[in-house]
Design a protein that fits this description.
This protein is of the alpha/beta class. It has 2 domains: 2-134 and 307-340, Medium-chain alcohol dehydrogenases, catalytic domain (Quinone Oxidoreductase, Chain A, domain 1); 155-288, NAD(P)-binding Rossmann-like Domain (Rossmann fold, 3-Layer(aba) Sandwich). The chain contains 12 helices and 17 strands. Strand 14 (254-262), helix 10 and strand 15 form a beta-alpha-beta unit. It is globular, with a radius of gyration of 20 Å. The protein binds zinc ion (2 copies).
Length: 347
């Protein structure tokens, strides 16, 4: 089969690998679509670890093509979205249902082979713990591949104790910031104010249901959020771009008893100096979120038929022969989501 291989920073190559065959408890997927996200780009740039020689791709949907001995929960032809974390099942976090916080977790696309290949071997723990989620009828592969990142967005909302009607400020309108806009509309947010320096991305945010947009300057952001919330500040502030200074900026635009989520990863050693009395007297929740629980992933898969707006986030589609382009084209700010279709780009 053809597979994309990560060798080292800035060196990813399409190569031939043997087709996988399933061992006991395993499943083989024919990969239908695999998305590239900001974390993959950080690996590509050498800012985040992945094992040399690994096949990247943790945002994957596919069709079961073979099942190993002992697998009776799935059959050839089933369409699934992959919750890509191999968790131990026994640590305190796994026992709380937080497989994404497992102390010995390994993730497809980082430590284990992922989905930017024609076939993907699903390790037995993923199959056995019910982490291959059915794709609802009518959801195209391109959208199903976004189940994983969208589950991360649902985790972001739930980390902020989001409730219907809450006002939101979203800083950064890349694919994940825009996904927050889509989920905000689907889950019944109040005003949604989006800050983003790139004009085409601001436009996209408005099309997807943002009630107001502004540029990326601190004064602009503060004015837009205060204006859009009648001076109260936003109930939920999402920092969806990992730039120095944004945590400090987020604090005073947050409503009393509001929440700030540092959704983006930041460059290593980034620090913030906060007005701690503001945090105290306004009862602000300051949190981070990463990945999603299997339950959040399950519910996101079920929400997918209602999230058609996600389809508009894909700006570039690649087949297997030029899969590396899904990384390099992301240097262009006009590019949003890039997706590889290992069986060929749908016509
Ligand atoms: Zn991702
Ligand atoms: Zn664990």
């Amino acid at each position: 089969m053809k597979a994309l291989i990560f060798h080292e920073a800035r060196r990813i190559v399409v190569e031939d690998r043997d087709d996988p065959t399933p061992e006991t408890g395993e499943v083989i997927l024919r990969t239908d679509a695999a998305g590239i996200c900001a974390s993959d780009l950080r690996v590509y740039r050498g800012e985040k670890y992945a094992a040399p020689g690994v096949i990247p791709g943790h945002e994957v949907t596919g069709t079961v093509s073979a099942v190993g001995a002992g697998v009776d929960s799935l059959a050839e032809g089933d369409r699934v979205a992959v919750y890509p974390i191999v968790a131990c099942g026994f640590c305190d976090f796994c026992r709380r249902g937080l497989r994404n916080r497992c102390t010995s977790r390994r993730t497809l696309g980082y430590e284990l082979d992922g989905g930017i290949a024609e076939y993907l071997r699903i390790p037995a723990p993923i199959v056995g713990q019910g982490q291959l989620m059915p794709v609802p009828d009518g959801v195209p592969a391109e959208r199903a591949a976004m189940t994983e990142p969208t589950a991360c967005v649902l985790n972001s909302f739930e980390s902020c104790r989001f409730r219907a009607g809450a006002s939101m400020a979203i800083i950064g309108a890349g694919p994940m910031g825009l996904s927050h806009v889509i989920l905000a509309r689907a889950l019944g947010a109040g005003p949604v104010i989006v800050a983003e320096p790139v004009e085409s991305r601001r436009q996209r945010a408005l099309e997807l249901g943002a009630t107001a947009v502004c540029g990326g300057g601190p004064d602009e952001i503060t004015a837009a959020v205060m204006d859009g919330t009648r001076g109260a500040g936003a109930d939920v502030v999402i920092v969806s771009v990992g730039l120095d200074g944004l945590t400090e900026l987020a604090l005073p635009i947050t409503a009393k008893q509001g929440a700030i989520n540092l959704f983006a990863g930041f460059p290593p050693k980034t620090t913030a100096s906060l007005d701690v009395n503001f945090l105290h007297y306004s009862e602000i929740l300051l949190t981070g979120s990463q990945n999603a629980t299997a339950d959040q992933f399950r519910r996101t898969a079920q929400l997918m038929p209602a999230l058609g707006g996600l389809d508009s986030l894909t700006t570039h589609r690649f087949d297997m022969t030029n899969a590396d382009g899904a990384y390099t084209v992301r240097e262009d700010p006009a590019a949003l989501k890039t997706i590889v279709f290992p069986g060929g780009v749908p016509g």
